[in-house]
Amino acid sequence: MHLIRTLALRRASVANDRSTQSNEKLPLHEVPMLTVHHSVAYFVLGVTLVSAVWGGIAYFRPGASGGLLAHLLTLSQTLLVAQVGLGLLLLSDDRRAPEELHYAYGTFALLAVLAPWFYAPKEPRRRLLWFSVATLIACALAVRAYTTA
């Protein structure tokens, strides 16, 4: 009985140490990575929403698309790849999200934005619609990933 009580007290002490460590300053190399991951999340949400809405408008109003829209859609994909990469770096440093669904939503957002490269038709207007809808789905999944972080 004494052993169980000692182990319970030790476990409580370790948990208390971890909670007090989270209030203290983190080592310099840990703070920027998490901050960058959070900052890129805001860019992902903004760029995916703007490019998806603009792509939808361009589909229904011919002539509204241009090179900037293509660059925005590409930027959305690049930001999502970077965000997943930063998340993997945090994961490799044993910095875990509170909910495991965070990883699923992030992965599905990346897969959603990359899927049109394999399945979109060759006709340019329909291809634009595929990329725009996929980016909108990725935006919704990124919102869910953000809320589970």
Explained architecture:
The protein is mostly helical and 149 residues long. It contains six helices and no strands. The two termini are 39 Å apart. The N terminus is likely disordered.
Secondary-structure element order, N to C: HHHHHH
Task: Please give the radius of gyration in angstroms.
Answer: 21 Å
- Main sheet overview: none
Shape: elongated
The end-to-end distance, rounded to whole angstroms, is: 39 Å
Alpha-beta classification: mainly alpha
Q: Give the mean pLDDT.
A: 84
Uncertain stretches of 5 or more adjacent residues: 3-12, 14-23
Amount of beta strand: under 5%
**Treating each run of at least 4 consecutive H or I residues as one helix, how many helices?**
6
Helix content percent band? over 70%
Number of strands: 0
Keyword list:
149 residues, mainly alpha, elongated, disordered N terminus
Give the topology, please.
Blueprint: H1 2-23, H2 30-60, H3 67-92, H4 101-114, H5 116-119, H6 124-147
Helix pairs in contact: 2-3, 2-6, 3-4, 4-6
Describe the structure concisely.
With 149 residues, the protein is an all-alpha fold. It is built from six helices and no strands.
